[in-house]
Amino acid sequence: MKDVYQIAVVHGDGIGPEVCAAAVEVVKAALGPDCPLRFPEYPAGAAHFLKTGQSFPQPTFEACRAADAILHGAGGLPGVVYPDGTEAGLDFTLRLRFELDLYANIRPIKLFEGVTSPLAGVKAGDIDYVILRENSEGLYAARGAGALLRGQVAVDTLVQTRAGIERIVRKAFELARQSNGAPRDGVRRVTCCDKANVLRSYAFFRSVFDEVAKDYPDIETEHALVDAMAMHLVLKPGHFNVIVSENMFGDILSDLAAATVGGMGMAPSAEVGDMNGFFQAAHGSAPDIAGKGIANPYGTILSAAAMLDWLGRGHDDERLLRAAEQIRRVTEACLANGLLSADLKGKSSTAEITGNVCDRLAA
Ligand code: IPM
Ligand code: MN
User: Fold this and answer.
1) Whole-angstrom Cα distance, residue 222 to residue 298?
2) What is the CATH number of the domain that holds 23?
Protein backbone atom coordinates (compact mmCIF):
# COMPACT_ATOMS: atom_id res chain seq x y z
CA MET A 1 0.00 0.00 0.00
CA LYS A 2 1.28 3.45 -0.92
CA ASP A 3 0.40 6.84 0.55
CA VAL A 4 0.10 8.39 -2.88
CA TYR A 5 -0.38 6.91 -6.35
CA GLN A 6 0.51 8.94 -9.43
CA ILE A 7 -1.91 8.44 -12.30
CA ALA A 8 -0.57 9.86 -15.56
CA VAL A 9 -3.64 11.26 -17.31
CA VAL A 10 -3.65 11.84 -21.05
CA HIS A 11 -6.92 13.22 -22.40
CA GLY A 12 -6.20 12.77 -26.10
CA ASP A 13 -8.48 13.74 -28.97
CA GLY A 14 -12.16 14.01 -29.89
CA ILE A 15 -14.33 12.79 -27.02
CA GLY A 16 -11.18 11.69 -25.16
CA PRO A 17 -11.10 14.68 -22.79
CA GLU A 18 -14.82 14.33 -22.01
CA VAL A 19 -14.78 10.65 -21.07
CA CYS A 20 -11.40 10.91 -19.34
CA ALA A 21 -12.54 13.79 -17.12
CA ALA A 22 -15.67 11.80 -16.30
CA ALA A 23 -13.61 8.80 -15.18
CA VAL A 24 -11.32 10.94 -13.01
CA GLU A 25 -14.36 12.53 -11.33
CA VAL A 26 -15.84 9.12 -10.64
CA VAL A 27 -12.62 7.74 -9.18
CA LYS A 28 -12.34 10.78 -6.91
CA ALA A 29 -15.93 10.37 -5.78
CA ALA A 30 -15.37 6.68 -5.04
CA LEU A 31 -12.28 7.33 -2.93
CA GLY A 32 -13.63 10.39 -1.12
CA PRO A 33 -11.73 13.25 0.52
CA ASP A 34 -8.72 11.07 1.40
CA CYS A 35 -8.24 9.96 -2.20
CA PRO A 36 -4.64 8.69 -2.41
CA LEU A 37 -4.52 9.16 -6.18
CA ARG A 38 -3.02 12.20 -7.93
CA PHE A 39 -3.88 12.96 -11.55
CA PRO A 40 -1.11 14.93 -13.26
CA GLU A 41 -1.98 15.58 -16.92
CA TYR A 42 0.29 15.25 -19.96
CA PRO A 43 -0.22 16.00 -23.65
CA ALA A 44 -0.26 13.51 -26.53
CA GLY A 45 -2.35 12.77 -29.59
CA ALA A 46 -3.36 14.06 -32.99
CA ALA A 47 -4.29 17.60 -31.91
CA HIS A 48 -0.97 17.90 -30.10
CA PHE A 49 0.76 16.66 -33.25
CA LEU A 50 -0.95 19.36 -35.32
CA LYS A 51 0.17 21.99 -32.83
CA THR A 52 3.73 20.87 -32.18
CA GLY A 53 4.73 18.26 -34.76
CA GLN A 54 4.96 15.65 -31.99
CA SER A 55 2.23 13.17 -31.19
CA PHE A 56 3.89 11.65 -28.13
CA PRO A 57 6.42 13.99 -26.48
CA GLN A 58 9.29 12.36 -24.61
CA PRO A 59 8.37 13.97 -21.24
CA THR A 60 4.89 12.44 -21.53
CA PHE A 61 6.47 9.05 -22.16
CA GLU A 62 8.81 9.40 -19.17
CA ALA A 63 5.91 10.44 -16.92
CA CYS A 64 3.81 7.48 -18.10
CA ARG A 65 6.63 5.04 -17.48
CA ALA A 66 7.25 6.43 -14.00
CA ALA A 67 3.57 6.65 -13.02
CA ASP A 68 1.76 4.00 -10.99
CA ALA A 69 -0.82 3.77 -13.79
CA ILE A 70 -1.83 5.53 -17.00
CA LEU A 71 -5.36 6.70 -17.80
CA HIS A 72 -6.29 7.75 -21.34
CA GLY A 73 -9.41 9.15 -23.00
CA ALA A 74 -8.98 8.32 -26.68
CA GLY A 75 -6.49 9.22 -29.39
CA GLY A 76 -6.31 9.93 -33.09
CA LEU A 77 -8.12 12.07 -35.63
CA PRO A 78 -8.90 10.97 -39.17
CA GLY A 79 -6.71 12.78 -41.67
CA VAL A 80 -3.98 13.59 -39.17
CA VAL A 81 -1.52 11.21 -40.75
CA TYR A 82 2.15 10.66 -41.40
CA PRO A 83 3.44 10.70 -44.98
CA ASP A 84 2.96 6.90 -45.07
CA GLY A 85 -0.78 7.38 -44.45
CA THR A 86 -0.89 5.95 -40.91
CA GLU A 87 -2.41 8.00 -38.08
CA ALA A 88 -0.07 10.07 -35.93
CA GLY A 89 -2.48 10.23 -33.01
CA LEU A 90 -2.22 6.47 -32.42
CA ASP A 91 1.43 6.68 -31.35
CA PHE A 92 0.51 7.21 -27.73
CA THR A 93 -1.39 3.95 -27.43
CA LEU A 94 0.83 1.91 -29.71
CA ARG A 95 4.20 3.04 -28.36
CA LEU A 96 3.08 2.52 -24.78
CA ARG A 97 2.10 -1.03 -25.65
CA PHE A 98 5.46 -1.83 -27.22
CA GLU A 99 7.83 0.22 -25.11
CA LEU A 100 6.29 -0.63 -21.74
CA ASP A 101 5.65 -4.22 -22.85
CA LEU A 102 1.92 -4.12 -22.07
CA TYR A 103 1.40 -7.57 -23.49
CA ALA A 104 -2.05 -8.36 -22.09
CA ASN A 105 -5.05 -6.42 -23.33
CA ILE A 106 -7.97 -7.55 -21.19
CA ARG A 107 -11.35 -6.66 -22.67
CA PRO A 108 -14.43 -7.69 -20.73
CA ILE A 109 -17.60 -8.04 -22.80
CA LYS A 110 -20.66 -7.95 -20.59
CA LEU A 111 -24.30 -7.21 -21.27
CA PHE A 112 -25.71 -5.11 -18.44
CA GLU A 113 -29.28 -4.78 -17.34
CA GLY A 114 -30.83 -1.72 -18.98
CA VAL A 115 -28.78 -2.09 -22.15
CA THR A 116 -30.41 -3.63 -25.20
CA SER A 117 -28.36 -6.03 -27.27
CA PRO A 118 -28.99 -6.02 -31.03
CA LEU A 119 -29.03 -9.82 -30.76
CA ALA A 120 -32.56 -11.20 -30.51
CA GLY A 121 -33.54 -12.89 -27.27
CA VAL A 122 -30.34 -12.01 -25.42
CA LYS A 123 -30.73 -10.45 -22.00
CA ALA A 124 -28.48 -9.12 -19.24
CA GLY A 125 -26.22 -11.83 -17.89
CA ASP A 126 -26.34 -13.88 -21.10
CA ILE A 127 -23.10 -12.35 -22.40
CA ASP A 128 -20.15 -12.20 -20.06
CA TYR A 129 -16.73 -13.10 -21.40
CA VAL A 130 -13.26 -11.66 -21.79
CA ILE A 131 -11.35 -11.12 -25.00
CA LEU A 132 -7.70 -11.41 -24.11
CA ARG A 133 -5.85 -9.71 -26.91
CA GLU A 134 -2.11 -10.25 -27.27
CA ASN A 135 -0.93 -6.66 -27.25
CA SER A 136 2.81 -6.61 -27.95
CA GLU A 137 3.40 -8.57 -31.15
CA GLY A 138 1.32 -10.12 -33.94
CA LEU A 139 0.59 -8.02 -36.99
CA TYR A 140 0.84 -4.76 -35.04
CA ALA A 141 4.52 -5.43 -34.35
CA ALA A 142 5.19 -4.06 -37.82
CA ARG A 143 3.88 -0.57 -36.90
CA GLY A 144 6.31 1.96 -38.38
CA ALA A 145 8.52 -0.76 -39.85
CA GLY A 146 6.64 -2.06 -42.85
CA ALA A 147 7.97 -1.48 -46.33
CA LEU A 148 6.56 0.06 -49.46
CA LEU A 149 8.54 -0.89 -52.54
CA ARG A 150 8.54 1.51 -55.48
CA GLY A 151 4.91 2.38 -54.94
CA GLN A 152 3.99 -1.15 -56.01
CA VAL A 153 4.31 -3.59 -53.15
CA ALA A 154 3.62 -3.07 -49.45
CA VAL A 155 4.69 -5.49 -46.72
CA ASP A 156 3.99 -5.71 -42.98
CA THR A 157 5.22 -8.69 -41.01
CA LEU A 158 3.24 -10.81 -38.57
CA VAL A 159 5.45 -11.72 -35.61
CA GLN A 160 4.62 -14.40 -33.05
CA THR A 161 7.22 -15.62 -30.59
CA ARG A 162 7.06 -18.62 -28.26
CA ALA A 163 7.66 -16.40 -25.23
CA GLY A 164 4.99 -13.94 -26.37
CA ILE A 165 2.38 -16.62 -26.97
CA GLU A 166 3.17 -18.50 -23.79
CA ARG A 167 2.70 -15.54 -21.51
CA ILE A 168 -0.59 -14.42 -23.05
CA VAL A 169 -1.98 -17.95 -23.01
CA ARG A 170 -1.02 -18.38 -19.34
CA LYS A 171 -2.79 -15.13 -18.60
CA ALA A 172 -5.90 -16.47 -20.35
CA PHE A 173 -5.96 -19.56 -18.14
CA GLU A 174 -5.42 -17.48 -15.02
CA LEU A 175 -8.32 -15.20 -15.97
CA ALA A 176 -10.52 -18.23 -16.56
CA ARG A 177 -9.60 -19.64 -13.15
CA GLN A 178 -10.66 -16.40 -11.46
CA SER A 179 -13.92 -16.23 -13.41
CA ASN A 180 -17.36 -17.75 -12.92
CA GLY A 181 -17.18 -19.56 -16.23
CA ALA A 182 -19.36 -19.11 -19.31
CA PRO A 183 -22.91 -17.84 -18.68
CA ARG A 184 -24.56 -20.66 -20.60
CA ASP A 185 -23.12 -23.60 -18.68
CA GLY A 186 -20.86 -22.22 -15.94
CA VAL A 187 -17.86 -23.96 -17.47
CA ARG A 188 -14.47 -22.28 -17.14
CA ARG A 189 -13.25 -22.35 -20.70
CA VAL A 190 -10.45 -20.82 -22.75
CA THR A 191 -10.99 -20.54 -26.48
CA CYS A 192 -7.90 -20.21 -28.64
CA CYS A 193 -8.85 -18.05 -31.59
CA ASP A 194 -6.52 -18.22 -34.59
CA LYS A 195 -6.23 -19.00 -38.26
CA ALA A 196 -4.13 -22.12 -37.82
CA ASN A 197 -5.55 -23.70 -40.95
CA VAL A 198 -3.92 -21.14 -43.22
CA LEU A 199 -0.84 -19.51 -41.72
CA ARG A 200 2.17 -21.06 -40.02
CA SER A 201 2.37 -18.34 -37.37
CA TYR A 202 -1.17 -19.10 -36.22
CA ALA A 203 -0.56 -22.86 -36.28
CA PHE A 204 2.39 -22.12 -34.01
CA PHE A 205 0.14 -20.00 -31.74
CA ARG A 206 -2.23 -22.95 -31.46
CA SER A 207 0.53 -25.48 -30.75
CA VAL A 208 1.97 -23.32 -27.97
CA PHE A 209 -1.58 -22.88 -26.63
CA ASP A 210 -1.98 -26.68 -26.52
CA GLU A 211 1.31 -27.09 -24.66
CA VAL A 212 0.47 -24.47 -22.05
CA ALA A 213 -3.07 -25.84 -21.64
CA LYS A 214 -1.62 -29.04 -20.15
CA ASP A 215 -0.71 -27.02 -17.05
CA TYR A 216 -4.38 -26.13 -16.51
CA PRO A 217 -6.31 -29.40 -16.53
CA ASP A 218 -9.14 -27.79 -14.55
CA ILE A 219 -10.00 -25.46 -17.45
CA GLU A 220 -11.80 -26.61 -20.58
CA THR A 221 -10.09 -25.69 -23.84
CA GLU A 222 -11.16 -25.39 -27.44
CA HIS A 223 -9.99 -23.91 -30.73
CA ALA A 224 -11.90 -21.58 -33.02
CA LEU A 225 -10.85 -20.16 -36.35
CA VAL A 226 -11.24 -16.41 -36.33
CA ASP A 227 -13.72 -16.25 -39.19
CA ALA A 228 -15.97 -18.78 -37.49
CA MET A 229 -15.42 -16.91 -34.25
CA ALA A 230 -16.99 -13.77 -35.73
CA MET A 231 -20.10 -15.84 -36.31
CA HIS A 232 -20.06 -17.59 -32.93
CA LEU A 233 -19.89 -14.25 -31.11
CA VAL A 234 -23.20 -13.36 -32.74
CA LEU A 235 -24.92 -16.76 -32.60
CA LYS A 236 -23.77 -18.20 -29.25
CA PRO A 237 -22.09 -15.49 -27.17
CA GLY A 238 -23.16 -17.21 -23.94
CA HIS A 239 -20.80 -20.09 -24.69
CA PHE A 240 -17.66 -18.04 -24.16
CA ASN A 241 -15.65 -17.37 -21.03
CA VAL A 242 -12.10 -16.32 -22.03
CA ILE A 243 -10.99 -15.94 -25.65
CA VAL A 244 -7.29 -15.53 -26.39
CA SER A 245 -6.02 -14.29 -29.72
CA GLU A 246 -3.30 -12.58 -31.68
CA ASN A 247 -3.17 -8.78 -31.60
CA MET A 248 -4.99 -7.84 -34.82
CA PHE A 249 -7.66 -10.52 -34.49
CA GLY A 250 -8.28 -9.34 -30.93
CA ASP A 251 -8.69 -5.80 -32.19
CA ILE A 252 -11.29 -6.76 -34.77
CA LEU A 253 -13.25 -9.15 -32.56
CA SER A 254 -13.33 -6.52 -29.80
CA ASP A 255 -15.51 -4.23 -31.88
CA LEU A 256 -17.81 -7.00 -33.01
CA ALA A 257 -18.16 -8.15 -29.41
CA ALA A 258 -18.75 -4.60 -28.16
CA ALA A 259 -21.60 -4.24 -30.65
CA THR A 260 -23.39 -7.20 -29.03
CA VAL A 261 -23.39 -5.49 -25.61
CA GLY A 262 -24.45 -1.98 -26.61
CA GLY A 263 -21.58 -0.68 -28.70
CA MET A 264 -18.11 0.74 -28.32
CA GLY A 265 -19.16 2.95 -25.44
CA MET A 266 -19.63 -0.16 -23.30
CA ALA A 267 -16.20 -1.68 -23.94
CA PRO A 268 -13.56 -1.09 -21.27
CA SER A 269 -10.02 -2.37 -21.43
CA ALA A 270 -6.96 -2.90 -19.28
CA GLU A 271 -3.56 -3.12 -20.97
CA VAL A 272 -1.05 -4.53 -18.57
CA GLY A 273 2.48 -5.85 -18.46
CA ASP A 274 4.57 -7.00 -15.55
CA MET A 275 5.48 -3.42 -14.57
CA ASN A 276 2.96 -0.97 -16.01
CA GLY A 277 -0.78 -0.64 -16.53
CA PHE A 278 -2.61 1.46 -19.10
CA PHE A 279 -6.36 2.01 -18.98
CA GLN A 280 -8.67 3.36 -21.66
CA ALA A 281 -11.92 2.31 -23.30
CA ALA A 282 -11.61 0.25 -26.47
CA HIS A 283 -13.34 2.93 -28.53
CA GLY A 284 -11.79 5.67 -30.63
CA SER A 285 -12.04 9.45 -30.39
CA ALA A 286 -15.43 9.79 -32.17
CA PRO A 287 -14.71 13.30 -33.50
CA ASP A 288 -18.23 13.51 -34.98
CA ILE A 289 -19.75 13.85 -31.50
CA ALA A 290 -16.85 15.56 -29.73
CA GLY A 291 -17.70 18.66 -27.72
CA LYS A 292 -21.43 17.95 -27.75
CA GLY A 293 -21.49 16.55 -24.24
CA ILE A 294 -23.20 13.35 -25.34
CA ALA A 295 -20.33 10.85 -25.32
CA ASN A 296 -20.87 7.61 -23.41
CA PRO A 297 -18.48 7.66 -20.43
CA TYR A 298 -19.25 4.13 -19.13
CA GLY A 299 -16.42 2.42 -21.03
CA THR A 300 -13.82 4.76 -19.58
CA ILE A 301 -15.38 4.67 -16.12
CA LEU A 302 -15.23 0.87 -16.16
CA SER A 303 -11.63 1.04 -17.42
CA ALA A 304 -10.82 3.28 -14.44
CA ALA A 305 -12.41 0.67 -12.16
CA ALA A 306 -10.11 -1.92 -13.75
CA MET A 307 -7.22 0.43 -12.99
CA LEU A 308 -8.19 0.56 -9.31
CA ASP A 309 -8.42 -3.23 -9.26
CA TRP A 310 -5.00 -3.60 -10.81
CA LEU A 311 -3.43 -1.05 -8.46
CA GLY A 312 -5.24 -2.49 -5.47
CA ARG A 313 -4.05 -6.02 -6.19
CA GLY A 314 -0.52 -4.93 -7.04
CA HIS A 315 -0.13 -2.87 -3.87
CA ASP A 316 -2.33 -4.90 -1.59
CA ASP A 317 -4.57 -1.87 -1.07
CA GLU A 318 -8.09 -2.69 0.10
CA ARG A 319 -9.26 0.90 -0.34
CA LEU A 320 -8.71 0.73 -4.08
CA LEU A 321 -10.26 -2.71 -4.44
CA ARG A 322 -13.34 -1.51 -2.58
CA ALA A 323 -13.59 1.62 -4.72
CA ALA A 324 -13.38 -0.49 -7.90
CA GLU A 325 -16.18 -2.72 -6.65
CA GLN A 326 -18.35 0.28 -5.78
CA ILE A 327 -17.82 1.89 -9.17
CA ARG A 328 -18.89 -1.31 -10.88
CA ARG A 329 -21.92 -1.71 -8.65
CA VAL A 330 -23.04 1.90 -9.10
CA THR A 331 -22.44 1.78 -12.85
CA GLU A 332 -24.66 -1.28 -13.10
CA ALA A 333 -27.36 0.42 -11.04
CA CYS A 334 -27.27 3.56 -13.20
CA LEU A 335 -27.59 1.53 -16.40
CA ALA A 336 -30.38 -0.54 -14.94
CA ASN A 337 -32.18 2.69 -14.02
CA GLY A 338 -32.11 3.87 -17.60
CA LEU A 339 -29.31 6.41 -17.34
CA LEU A 340 -28.36 5.93 -20.98
CA SER A 341 -26.43 8.07 -23.45
CA ALA A 342 -27.47 8.66 -27.06
CA ASP A 343 -25.51 5.67 -28.41
CA LEU A 344 -27.58 3.48 -26.06
CA LYS A 345 -30.77 5.11 -27.36
CA GLY A 346 -31.07 7.20 -24.21
CA LYS A 347 -31.14 10.92 -23.58
CA SER A 348 -28.63 11.38 -20.77
CA SER A 349 -25.64 13.63 -21.31
CA THR A 350 -22.10 12.71 -20.29
CA ALA A 351 -22.39 15.16 -17.38
CA GLU A 352 -25.71 13.72 -16.19
CA ILE A 353 -24.36 10.18 -16.19
CA THR A 354 -21.15 11.19 -14.48
CA GLY A 355 -22.97 13.32 -11.90
CA ASN A 356 -25.38 10.51 -11.12
CA VAL A 357 -22.61 7.95 -10.74
CA CYS A 358 -20.72 10.32 -8.42
CA ASP A 359 -23.81 11.12 -6.33
CA ARG A 360 -24.52 7.46 -5.79
CA LEU A 361 -20.91 6.82 -4.86
CA ALA A 362 -21.02 9.62 -2.31
CA ALA A 363 -24.32 8.42 -0.83
C1 IPM B 1 -7.94 -0.39 -29.87
C2 IPM B 1 -7.80 0.70 -30.89
C3 IPM B 1 -6.32 0.83 -31.18
C4 IPM B 1 -5.87 -0.41 -31.91
C5 IPM B 1 -5.90 2.09 -31.91
C6 IPM B 1 -6.36 3.32 -31.18
C7 IPM B 1 -4.42 2.11 -32.13
O8 IPM B 1 -8.56 0.43 -32.02
O9 IPM B 1 -7.37 -0.24 -28.78
O10 IPM B 1 -8.61 -1.38 -30.13
O11 IPM B 1 -5.97 -0.51 -33.14
O12 IPM B 1 -5.39 -1.30 -31.23
MN1 MN C 1 -9.75 -1.39 -31.87
Assistant:
1) 32
2) 3.40.718.10
